[in-house]
Every structure is written in C-alpha cells, then in structure tokens.
Design a protein that fits this description.
Shape: globular
Structural class: alpha/beta
Distance between the termini: 34 Å
Strand order of the largest sheet: 1-14-13-12-15-10-11
Strand content: 15-25%
Radius of gyration: 22 Å
C-alpha cells in the first residue's frame, strides 16, 4: 500500500543561483566522454572494444568489464573516438568521442517489456548499455546480472542543493517513465517503488501504474532513494535491492519504446558563481566548458558535476558524470579568514547556533533575513579530533548511529559495521553529516572504504 511519510530530520542547503524553470536550447556540446570510474565496482582497466579513429553510433559498445563481458558500456552519441585517456598504472580515465552532430542511433528494436521474459529484458538492457544505470544495494555497485532483487526503488524527486526539478525536466517523459517501470517489473519478484514529492501537492508521477507510489516530504535528504528504502522496506542482511535514477529510468523506457539508447537529458546549471542559472538539454558525458561558455562570473571557481554535497570536482575542462543531471559552480574557498571563528561573519548555511540567525524570522528590522546564500567551498576551520557531538544524528532521518558506524569503519570492525547498519547507507545518505561535522571529517570517503571492505570480505 502507498504511504505518506513526513521526515523531520535533515537540513536544506539553500544556495544562490537556482535556475528558473526555463529551457535554453541554444547551448550544444560537441565532445563527450564515458568514464569507467563513474561506475562503482568496475575494474580500472576494462576491455576496450574501440580504437582511436573508430566511428560509433549512439549505443555502440566502447568497453566492458572482464568478469561480466555481456554488460556493455556504450557511446552516448554518434561520432568519432578521438582519444582514450589513461591514468595511473594504465587505468582508463575516459573514452572521448567527438560528436558528428547527427546523433545516429544503433537500432536495438522496440518491444513491449510486458511481453518479454526476464532474460529477454536483461539481454536488451545489457546489450544497449542501459544495464550500467541499475545500481545494487548494499554497496551501490553496478547491479549483478545474475542476481534477482527483492525490490526496485526509484526516487522521482531530488532535494540536493540546486537540484534539477524533475517535475519540469521529466514531466513530458511520463510515457517513457512508465515503460521503464514496466521493464523493471520483469526483473524482480517483488515490487517497484516510486517515491514522489509529497510536499508540493499533486505530482506528475502520481498516476503511474505497475508500481507502488509513496509520498515523502521534509528537508533533505528526503529525496534520497536510500532514505526512502529505509522508511518503506529496509534492507536486511542477505537481501539485495536495486535502484535507478528517474533520468536513467527514462533512458530505459526509451530503449523499449523506440529501440534507441537515448541519454538526452535536461540538466540544471546553477550556483553562486553562475551569471545566468538555466536549464539546458544535452547528453550524458558532455564536456562542461561548452555548457558554461561565458556563463561564469568569477575566475577562481569549483566546477562540480552533480550537487554541492555529493558531486565530483571536475574542473572547467571536465565532463558531466554519467549519473549526474546538474552542474554546480561555486567560489573556490582557498583562503583564510582572520579570526573567522570569533568575528561577525557573512551569512552562510549552517545548523550551528554560533552563526548569526540570518535565516530566522525576526522582529528586529536591522537583522536581514536571507533565503539563499552565496556560499563557497571554504571549510571554515581545520581538521579536529573526531568526537561524538550528536550533530550527525540531527540530520540523518534513519534509525542508525552514523558516528559509531564511522568509528567501526576506522577500526575495521566488520561485526560492528554490520550491526550498525552499513548495508543501508551509501555516500549520499550521509553527505549532510560531512557538511555539519565540527571535526571536518571525510565522512563519504570513509564510508566508501567501509563499503568496499565489507564487499571484499564477502
């Protein structure tokens, strides 16, 4: 049965530079990249199927992981393979494609997923490259093809800072969204759950069929699929669930409706350092310099693929991540503030009562109310001892003990890690802990080390 769940714990980070709900169709990228590092659990040196100079169609294979040779990673556009960039120890950093501007698609054939067997649906997803968009929990890795998940979860909204509005970006893609749900239903003996934004009244996704729609409201991380899993049907030891982002679900739906691997997506470009925040349409892996040309009003900035909390620092010459649907541009906080801990400071998002109450409604007219913040990447302090403060619990709407879990990871205590709920969380679920941490502790990096250790130990 559907549920309406209101979460109280969490915190909304309201940054300047939120784009208006208008689409700019004039911006086009000509260079794209597929990066193996975007896909958790993929080996650093996958097997290449192309060479520099090869012509490819959208959907043609570029490489595959040697343990799963039938799971292909494919080109988002048609064009020429211009470069294969390698990193340390010959690891493949990215496969660069120069688009031909025509975007010709490899034909995988349309089909109604309701009329296909589980194996037929799997084969189509693996051949086209869509299988790589299905993530498996625990561990948030590319789904294992031979596994059968207990359930599959999709969050149809995003509460991250400056996140794209899915009602705007996907409202016209409901037919493909539904086709994607129908395909996922063939892959599980359980249910497909869709979490929608219950804080905006009616949602475009309320009328979906062949799935269970649950409504969530509250501050971030209410839109995180991991939080939704926790409140609907938590993961127990030995269980597997799969998750798919709403954008990738539409890509899966288009595969079955039109027989094409179509990674086109409307992304949000925002942040305090953006001259004109906007929405644009591009393809997965687009080079961001083309998307940001002339639209940055500062010189020293950090270009983040994804949100300010969990995105990747890619630089102006980087490429949009395979799972990202926003670009966030922030002032680089590489400076010191003299006595910044004691002098009156500028308004910035914080849960600390030591920061002046700029965000509170007040009767005093000389205190300015601020709805959003021109924040930078400055940590406002150095690393300190990792002590128990209760801050993590205040922003984690899950029945786990995040600080104790992190300490268990640091001590490599597998039993405690398991008992404290490591199977239920991934980096994005605890990103707010890193934001509020007095100790300036690398929460997400530590959690990933713990997840990798648990996976290695079986």
């Amino acid at each position: 049965m559907s549920k309406a769940i209101k979460l109280k714990k969490g915190f909304n980070i309201n940054l300047d530079g939120k784009p208006e709900l208008k689409l700019d169709k004039s911006i086009k990228a000509s260079t794209f990249a597929v990066k193996p590092a975007d896909f958790q659990s993929l080996r650093p040196i996958p097997k290449l199927t192309v060479e520099v100079g090869d012509e490819v169609l959208a959907g043609d294979p570029l490489f595959f992981d040697k343990p799963n040779p039938d799971v292909l990673f494919t080109s988002p556009v048609s064009g020429e393979v211009a470069e294969i960039r390698r990193g340390a120890k010959r690891a493949i950093d990215s496969v660069i494609i120069i688009a031909d501007g025509k975007n010709q698609f490899k034909d995988f054939g349309s089909a109604n997923p309701k009329n296909l067997s589980r194996e037929d649906v799997k084969a189509k997803l693996k051949e086209s490259g869509c299988w790589a968009f299905i993530k498996q929990r625990p561990f948030n890795i590319v789904a294992e093809p031979d596994a059968v998940p207990r359930d599959i979860f999709i969050s149809a909204f995003d509460t991250n800072p400056l996140a794209a509005d899915t009602e705007f970006t996907l409202g016209a893609e409901l037919k493909a969204f539904q086709a994607g749900i129908d395909a996922l239903n063939q892959l599980t003996d359980g249910d497909v759950y869709v979490g929608v934004n219950g804080g905006i009244g009616g949602s475009s996704f309320d009328g979906l069929s062949n799935c269970t729609v649950n409504k969530f409201s509250g501050p971030h991380p209410a839109g995180n699929v991991g939080v939704q899993i926790h409140h609907v049907k938590p993961i127990n030891k030995g269980e597997i669930v799969w998750t798919v982002s709403p954008y990738d679900l539409v890509t899966i739906g288009k595969l079955f409706l039109h027989g094409k691997y179509d990674t086109s997506r409307t992304i949000a470009i925002g942040g305090p350092s953006v001259a004109e925040p906007k929405y644009i349409t591009t393809y997965s892996g687009a080079k961001v310099s083309a998307l940001l040309d002339g639209n940055i009003n500062e010189e020293n900035v950090r270009v983040v693929s994804g949100s300010a909390l969990v995105g990747d620092n890619i630089g102006i010459d980087g490429f949009l991540g395979s799972f990202h649907h926003q670009l966030t541009i922030l002032d680089e906080g590489d400076f010191y503030e003299m006595l910044g801990w004691i002098l009156p400071s500028y308004p910035r998002p914080s849960i600390s009562p030591t920061i002046p109450p700029f965000t509170l409604t007040t009767k005093f007219p000389f205190i300015k109310k601020v709805d959003s913040f021109n924040a930078n990447t400055n940590t406002h302090g150095e690393k300190r001892a990792f002590v128990v403060t209760g801050q993590y619990e205040a922003v984690t709407p899950m029945d786990i003990f995040p600080q104790q879990l992190l300490k268990a990871i640091l001590s490599n205590d597998l039993d405690k890690m398991e008992g404290l709920g490591i199977y239920e969380v991934v980096e994005e679920d605890m990103a707010l802990c890193e934001f509020v941490c007095t100790s300036k502790f690398n929460v997400q990096e530590t959690l990933r080390k713990g997840l990798d250790l648990m996976r290695e130990q079986g």
